[in-house]
């Protein structure tokens, strides 16, 4: 069962695109995540430069060693340190392996590391925990596309189209629904485009 307070905060998710397959569609304000159990479910930004108001060193100084693994993981994601995010979120998952929020962040971190199948497994948990918000659906669709699972990617795209129809451009999540659809579309195009042999040799994926 997902915590009600976190579900209520799904509306502050932002789009993540550039590190996955497409340009980021939105950027957060750079404000620090809350340090209470009601911490908003804020997706990390793309791999573009962090907002100028962000200073992770200041946060570390202010919060000291009491920062939870989840908070540390979120901060690492926001600063583009996907390896640290993954390490921190592994610790967070040890005490709550079925938590949709933690699994979502872990999936995003592993997407940043190119660990598409590992990301898929965590994003599937996040999506099952909340099928009404576009971000878990869009990230899972991108992971499926990158893994060559066209049917899976299309299913997530269809889910987002249903959200768009229900929203009819009038709800606050409308921009995120549309950016999620574009993310999946661009990931499917990228997955279908042959990569140069030199690129495969260098990056190995």
Description of the molecule:
The chain is mostly helical. Helices cover 59% and strands 0% of the residues. It contains ten helices and no strands. It has helices at 4-8, 56-63, 69-78, 82-95, 100-112, 116-129, 134-146, 150-167, 174-192, 197-203. Helix 7 packs parallel to helix 9. 40% of the residues are buried. Mean pLDDT is 74; it is low at 1-63 and 199-205.
Keywords:
205 residues; disordered N terminus; 59% helix; single chain; disordered C terminus; mainly alpha; Serine Threonine Protein Phosphatase 5, Tetratricopeptide repeat
What's the helix and strand layout?
Layout: H1 4-8, H2 56-63, H3 69-78, H4 82-95, H5 100-112, H6 116-129, H7 134-146, H8 150-167, H9 174-192, H10 197-203
Explain briefly what this protein structure is.
The protein is mainly alpha-helical and 205 residues long.
Q: Give the fraction of residues assigned to helices.
A: 55-70%
Structural class: mainly alpha
Q: Briefly, what CATH class?
A: Mainly Alpha
Low-confidence stretches are: 1-63, 199-205
Shape: globular
- Rg: 16 Å
How many structural domains does the protein architecture include? 1
CATH topology: Serine Threonine Protein Phosphatase 5, Tetratricopeptide repeat
């Amino acid at each position: 069962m997902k915590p009600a307070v976190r579900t209520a905060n799904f509306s502050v998710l932002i789009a993540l695109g550039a590190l996955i397959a497409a340009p980021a569609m939105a950027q957060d304000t750079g404000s620090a995540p809350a340090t209470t159990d009601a911490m908003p479910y804020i997706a990390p930004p793309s791999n573009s430069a962090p907002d100028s108001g962000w200073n992770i060193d200041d946060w570390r100084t202010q919060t000291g060693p009491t920062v939870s693994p989840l908070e540390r993981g979120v901060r690492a994601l926001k600063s583009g340190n996907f390896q640290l995010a993954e390490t921190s979120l592994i610790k967070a998952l040890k005490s709550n392996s079925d938590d949709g929020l933690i699994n979502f962040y872990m999936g995003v971190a592993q997407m940043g590391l190119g660990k598409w199948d590992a990301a898929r497994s965590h994003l599937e948990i996040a999506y099952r925990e909340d099928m009404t918000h576009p971000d878990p659906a869009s990230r899972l669709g991108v992971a499926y596309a990158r893994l060559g699972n066209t049917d899976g990617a299309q299913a997530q795209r269809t889910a987002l189209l249903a959200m768009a129809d229900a929203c009819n451009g009038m709800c606050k999540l409308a921009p995120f629904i549309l950016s999620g659809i574009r993310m999946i579309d661009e990931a499917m195009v990228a997955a279908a485009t042959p990569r140069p042999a030199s690129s495969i040799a260098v990056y190995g994926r």
